[in-house]
Write a structure and sequence with these properties.
With 624 residues, the chain is α/β, with parallel strands linked by helices. The chain is built from 21 helices and 10 strands. The strands form 3 sheets. A 4-stranded parallel β-sheet has the order 4-3-5-6. Helix 2 links the parallel strand 3 (67-70) and strand 4.
Length: 624
């Protein structure tokens, strides 16, 4: 028996010799498949079910009659985004903050086993449409024709990636088959909607309107949570917030200067009377994004409950989440830099040319700077002083030993890093992590990794809690237990601040009454302690216990100390500069290699294209 081989072209299939015969494996597999399909009755035409609610939109000619429904962020941000989108020509209606009734509606029409943010957000939309149909007399067809729901989407290791499917399933079962749910992905950017007849144009104007609403909402929320615990007249802060939101809303709707509108908000907040001698434990709220952001029944009005119990809430702003996404871009680019043109994954650097790494890093760093600049511009215009957005590089550094920075989902390593920063840098007396029952990314962190953090950092007050749509009493009871410890810690810190600075509470109160600058609700003392009230003690004590000459001497001493530290750091800066100079040839060599590789790849592609063209010409000649 002789082995036989066949000489074939690259386009032909290779055949293996078996028992002296040539066997076409692909042909045999295809024959077997056809026989099995016939035996199983699958050889006929099969009509597959297709989701006909995917990809629905509206045309530009329909814009005048279509109303965009939005929701999912804080009340202030949804309200201001509504104004921003109205300002660029859309009909917009924000949905109310989700309630328990909406949660029950979501459970009625949604799939089983979903997390409660799904039930709350889906049910909130369905409940609104049912109200339009059953109480306002609109038919289901009119509602489907005149309304569109706009929401964000993303992929990830949790059920957030399936929210849009839940929306469509619940809407169909509630009698609104064909209702349009439009999704703009986190990674889609401006490439998602193109064409002259697209009703919802995801262009820079659209995103800029949303960004202004989000950042203005962040600033107003931060001011509200800073003032409300110390207000002398209950409700004064909320009244000021309502006035401020209306001013900003009008500016966004009329496309006037938003900075001028925020500037007009400053005297409104300055008029709120506060008592800065009150001892308030500061509670940092972290956890799953929606659960820590919503302000309604979805987290049992957590922020309001904490304030009623005598705490000051330190919330996580949406700007911080944007910084985290930009950090991901920078971190992933650095890790993939050496792969260069061979990195052909979905988010890879392949095809980007020799400057792909530089371009992505530049986008990441420029985006980070832009977010911080825009936020601080809005903050200072409205009177939010001394508020610093988190340092994502520092958070990644301190958390990496406990939680790998490359593990994504939810807030990733940020929960671990924020807890460590809160303890080490005295940012909060208590850290509260809230997430839905069964939230895979957040529960795995809070209930697992964080236990190691609390053991390593004694005195940490960390309260992990879960929401499920019910169980409000148990939730509150658990929070109160930890909050009792935080109150004790805050009182002990305040007493220590008074003792360390040599003043009494009565002296501090008298000085604040006599000095409007320090009494102002917009004044933020330098960070020394966890609590803002203790920081105020440290700020005013020198004016009570020292003369002007002594204060000037202390300032000069502090300036000299700062100069000394700068001089001590100078050698390190010089070393860094020398290292950068030494690395310059390596960087140049890498760029040179990238250019060479790019040229080789283009040459191979060109050669392959020419070969295919020549082969097709030979085949055509043979046929003739």
């Amino acid at each position: 028996m002789s082995n036989q081989t066949s000489t074939v072209t690259t386009a032909a299939k290779k055949k293996l010799p078996i028992a002296g015969q040539l066997l076409d494996i692909d042909a045999e597999l295809k024959k077997f498949e056809e026989e099995e399909r016939k035996r199983l009755g699958l050889d006929g035409k099969v009509d597959q079910w297709v989701e006909d609610m995917v990809g629905l939109g509206f045309k530009k000619s329909e814009r005048a009659k279509v109303t965009l429904l939005i929701g999912g962020l804080t009340v202030a941000q949804d309200y201001l985004i509504e104004g921003g989108l109205k300002g660029i020509g859309y009909q917009v209606q924000m949905l109310d903050c989700p309630t328990t009734e909406g949660f029950q509606t979501g459970k009625e029409f949604g799939n089983r086993g979903q997390c409660n943010p799904t039930y709350f957000t889906v049910g909130n939309l369905v409940q609104y449409l049912i109200t339009l149909r059953d109480k306002h007399g609109m038919t289901s067809e009119e509602i489907v024709d005149k309304f569109v729901f706009l929401t964000a989407g993303a992929c990830g290791p949790c059920r957030f990636g399936m929210y849009v499917t839940e929306y469509r399933k619940a809407l169909r079962d509630a009698g609104f088959d064909g209702f349009r749910v439009m999704l703009f992905q986190q990674t889609g950017g401006l490439k998602q909607a193109t064409g002259d007849d697209v009703g919802l144009e995801l262009n820079p104007t659209f995103f800029w309107s949303i960004v202004k609403g989000m950042f203005a909402g962040d600033v107003l929320n931060a001011i509200g949570y800073r003032l409300r615990p110390y207000e002398k007249v209950p409700g004064a802060t909320n009244e000021a917030l309502d006035k401020a939101k209306k001013l900003v809303y009008e500016a966004l709707e009329t496309k006037s200067n938003i900075m001028a509108a925020l500037w007009k908000c400053k005297p409104i907040f300055a008029a709120v009377e506060v008592d800065k001698t009150r001892v308030k434990p500061k509670v940092s709220i972290i956890g799953e994004f929606w659960a820590m952001t919503t302000e309604g029944d979805g987290n049992y009005q957590l922020q309001q409950f904490l304030e009623q119990e005598g705490a000051e809430c330190d919330i996580q702003l949406l700007a911080a989440w944007l910084l985290y996404t930009l950090w991901e871009v920078k971190n992933d680019t650095k890790e993939r830099a050496d792969l260069r043109e061979w990195d052909t994954a979905k988010y890879g650097l392949g095809g980007g040319g020799p400057m792909a790494v530089f371009q992505k890093l530049a986008i990441g760093y420029a985006g980070d700077f832009g977010v911080r600049l825009l936020f601080q511009s809005f903050a200072h215009a409205a009177g939010l002083y001394g508020f610093k957005l988190p340092d994502m590089e520092k958070i990644a550094e301190v958390s990496h030993g406990y939680y790998n920075n490359d593990l994504r989902g939810g807030e990733g390593h940020m929960e671990v890093g924020k807890l460590i920063m809160n303890v080490v840098h005295q940012k909060a007396h208590m850290t509260l992590s809230v997430k839905p029952f069964g939230c895979m990314p957040s529960a795995g962190v809070s209930d697992g990794v964080q236990s190691a953090i609390t053991e390593k950092f004694p005195g940490t007050i960390f309260c992990p809690v879960e929401t499920s749509g019910d169980g409000r009493v148990n939730f509150y009871s658990r929070v109160q237990m930890y909050l009792f410890k935080a109150k004790q810690a805050a009182q002990a810190e305040y007493d220590r601040a008074l003792e360390e600075n040599g003043v009494t509470r009565e002296q501090v109160a008298a000085y604040l009454d006599a000095n409007p600058k320090f009494r102002s609700p917009l004044y933020k003392a330098a960070h020394v302690y966890c609590g803002n009230n203790a920081d105020v003690v440290a700020a005013v004590a020198p004016y009570i216990t020292k003369t002007r000459a002594q204060r000037w001497r202390d300032r000069l001493t502090a300036f000299a100390t700062g100069g000394k530290k700068a001089i001590q750091n100078t050698p390190h800066l010089a070393v860094s500069l020398v290292q950068a100079v030494k690395e310059a040839p390596k960087v140049a060599e890498r760029v040179k290699e990238d250019i060479t590789i790019l040229r080789e790849i283009r040459a191979l592609k060109k050669k392959a294209a020419n070969g295919a063209r020549a082969e097709s010409m030979l085949d055509a000649a043979a046929e003739e």
